[in-house]
Every structure is written in C-alpha cells, then in structure tokens.
C-alpha cells in the first residue's frame, strides 16, 4: 500500500492529468505544471523529484483503485458473468471520468526506457489478469462459462477487447459514449464466453 497523498500532491496529480489530456505525456513538464498550477517549479520539486515520480504516483493511484475493484468482484456474491460485466463497466466508468488516464495507462511504449514505469504498468496488468483468470476459472467450474477454451485465453480475449476498445475511444478523441458503447461490448463478450450447453 502506498502512503497517503497530501492535498498538494493530489492537486499536482490532478493538474498533471489535465495537462496530459491537453497535450499528451510529452506536454507534462515541471515547467508547464508550475505555470498551470500557479506556483514555482521549486514548490513542485518539494513534492516530486521529477516528471517520472509524478507518473509513478498516477500509476499507483490507478493501481490501488483497480486492485480494489477487481478484489471486491472476486470476493463478491454472484456468478462469473455478472462479475466480469461489473469489472468492464467499472473500468469504462473510471476512464470516462478521467480520460487522460488512458494516455498514461496504455503508453507503455513511451515508458520503455523507464524501468520503474514499465514495472508499474506490468504490475497493474498482471494483477488484474490474475484476478480475472480466477473469476473465469470459478465460472468454468460452475458450468457458467465455456471450458473448451483455457481461462487464461479467455482473460486475454476480455482484457484485450477492453484495451483495444478504450484505445479506439481515446484515438477518436472520445467520439462516443464509452460506458454506453462499452455496455454493448460487454454483452458481446458475454455471448462469447458463456457456456452454451
């Protein structure tokens, strides 16, 4: 668990996400951040050493939120299909509320030279993948989900669909309602993974 953020750190993260939304990760610099918030660069350095530390804080924030969501679905009552549907809906809701998160979470190609960022993105993907796989296995054991395809492969199909769909939304400059269209995608995924027997 990461330590609690101060109000100033939360403000820096919030404004950083706004900057990323406006001009991409490249637009996030300490200079631009100081200008946008309205205080000196040295004031920002008191909270974060550099841009990388700010991105780590954003990834940690997202990681804790998604892990909480995935864990609560894993332990919730209800069948696997309902849990998968809730997970997808909640992810769409998070990205709709903060679109600039997409630019950070799905920008691992920009992080290739920053081991700490690659590690964080990897942790998020692996943790979510493992939890989703457990949910799928449980659904297969109960005869609700198709068992002719491995649980790991079904998890790849679901997570890959989510990723591509959110990226399409991002690349289209948010041209459609992510939660509404996401609900349609969830229904299609449901058809693909349900045990027909």
Describe the structure in brief:
The protein is mainly α and 197 residues long.
Describe the protein's architecture and organization:
The model has no long low-confidence stretch (mean pLDDT 90). This protein is elongated. It is built from 9 helices and no strands. It is mostly helical and 197 residues long.
Features:
197 residues; mainly alpha
Oligomer: single chain
Major β-sheet profile: none
Low-confidence segments, given as residue ranges, are none
Rg is 18 Å
What order do the helices and strands come in, and which of them pair?
Elements: H1 7-23, H2 30-37, H3 41-45, H4 51-75, H5 80-97, H6 100-105, H7 115-141, H8 151-171, H9 178-193
């Amino acid at each position: 668990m990461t330590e609690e953020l101060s109000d100033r750190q939360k403000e820096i993260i919030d404004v950083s996400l706004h900057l990323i939304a406006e001009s991409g990760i490249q637009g996030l610099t300490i200079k631009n951040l100081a200008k946008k918030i309205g205080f000196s660069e040295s004031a920002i350095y008191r909270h974060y050493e550099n841009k990388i530390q700010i991105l780590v804080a954003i990834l940690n924030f997202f990681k804790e939120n998604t892990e909480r969501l995935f864990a609560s679905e894993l332990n919730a009552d209800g069948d696997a299909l309902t849990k998968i549907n809730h997970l997808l809906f909640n992810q769409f809701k998070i990205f709709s509320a903060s679109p600039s998160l997409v630019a950070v979470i799905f920008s691992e190609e920009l992080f290739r030279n920053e081991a700490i960022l690659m590690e964080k993105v990897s942790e998020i993907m692996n943790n979510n993948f493992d939890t989703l796989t457990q949910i799928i296995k449980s659904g297969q054991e109960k005869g609700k989900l198709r068992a002719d395809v491995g649980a790991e492969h079904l998890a790849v199909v679901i997570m890959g669909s989510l990723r591509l769909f959110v990226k399409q939304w991002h690349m289209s400059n948010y041209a459609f309602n992510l939660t509404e269209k996401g609900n349609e995608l969830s229904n299609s995924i449901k058809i693909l993974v349900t045990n027909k027997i």
